[in-house]
């Protein structure tokens, strides 16, 4: 199994987290975003969208960090705890995956990209304001729960963790969200948790 | 079954399409976005994100148009054709759902919202340019296929159809994308296809 990835990307970090939680061996292939390596003809064959991460497994290439989480959990988690397959639980996990894919990407992730790598075409005022709207929703949800869905950590938590844990790099403070902070701490205590740069 | 929805929304249209394809009865509850009815205390109890569509079924409320498509197909499509459950096919369907959820939302859907309802905070130049990048990816994919995944229409096609079919409302022309145009025509010929305002 190969993961085309870069250390700094929160989306790639999601996949490294799940691979670690599932205790799976894989090879990291480093993609240099500064050199636009994800836009080369070779890479576009792996993912026509020109984005990392891409997972290579059994000759297949899978893109989109959330889709890769679903694929890995369905394929390698024998107990189906990380991606529950009962329809209601699965639907709620998917709601949070879409939240991570669209809401977190356009708010917390965008704010981080603006401040950390000076990414252009970002309305930082709007991204910052909407980051707080997103965090308030997550905080309210976690007031009565330990995990986003069900009684144990799922790929919903993995999909939402990186850019919330890295919020400070986008100059978003978490002081107002104690339930989010407690959830981050719980997440960091999961067996085989790894840091962004591990 | 109740669908909280508004006619003009492409995201709500996705759900109406699948409900029609599955030949399911439901009640439409019209939400007035002009009055910000989706941000009222009552509505936020149905969906804390303050967005339509929301599906009410068996006492549950499900939000996010893509998650609702997954829920409906898993629950009511006995043949599991609309949302295949074999892992590889499911993963590819999910890749396109995430594409619709994030890429199409931030490009074709954003351009339509800018021109049609004068939605603020949209960088129309970037949304237009990125719409063409998205369309080129879909067109290339459809050069050798009738449907986005597999041999028949799935919720991947439903998730991508509305904002591509409505591209002209965002001043995006489809002249350069003949394979996309042929796919739109095929989609419109599906049994029980309905128009946006039906």
UniProtKB/TrEMBL annotation, chains A, B:
Q: Which InterPro entries match?
A: Glutathione-S-Trfase_C-like, Glutathione-S-Trfase_C_sf, Glutathione_S-Trfase, Glutathione_S-Trfase_N, GST_C, Thioredoxin-like_sf
What superkingdom heads the lineage?
Bacteria
Q: Which residue intervals define the domain GST N-terminal in the entry?
A: 1-80
Domain GST C-terminal spans what residues? 86-198
List residues traversing the bilayer.
Answer: none
- Which CDD domains does the UniProt entry name for this protein? GST_C_7, GST_N_4
Protein family (similarity comment): Belongs to the GST superfamily.
What is the protein named?
Answer: Glutathione S-transferase
User: Which source organism does the UniProt entry give?
Assistant: Acinetobacter parvus DSM 16617 = CIP 108168
Q: Taxonomy-wise, where does this protein's organism fall, top ranks first?
A: Bacteria, Pseudomonadati, Pseudomonadota, Gammaproteobacteria, Moraxellales
């Amino acid at each position: 199994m190969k993961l085309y990835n870069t250390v700094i990307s929160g989306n790639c970090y999601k996949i490294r987290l799940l691979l670690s939680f599932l205790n799976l061996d894989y090879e990291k292939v480093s993609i240099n975003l500064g050199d636009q390596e994800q836009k080369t003809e070779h890479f576009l064959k792996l993912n026509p969208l020109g984005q990392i991460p891409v997972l290579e497994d059994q000759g297949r290439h899978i893109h989109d960090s959330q889709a890769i989480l679903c694929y890995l959990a369905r394929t390698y988690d024998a107990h189906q705890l990380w991606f529950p397959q009962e329809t209601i639980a699965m639907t709620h996990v998917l709601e949070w995956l879409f939240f991570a894919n669209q809401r977190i990407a356009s708010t917390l992730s965008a704010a981080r990209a603006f401040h950390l790598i000076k990414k252009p075409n970002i309305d930082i005022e709007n991204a910052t304001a909407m980051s707080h709207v997103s965090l308030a929703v997550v905080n309210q949800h976690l007031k009565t729960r330990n995990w986003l869905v069900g009684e144990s950590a799922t790929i919903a938590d993995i999909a939402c963790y990186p850019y919330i844990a890295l919020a400070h790099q986008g100059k978003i403070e978490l002081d107002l969200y104690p339930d989010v902070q407690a959830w981050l701490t719980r997440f960091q205590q999961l067996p085989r948790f790894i840091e962004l740069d591990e």
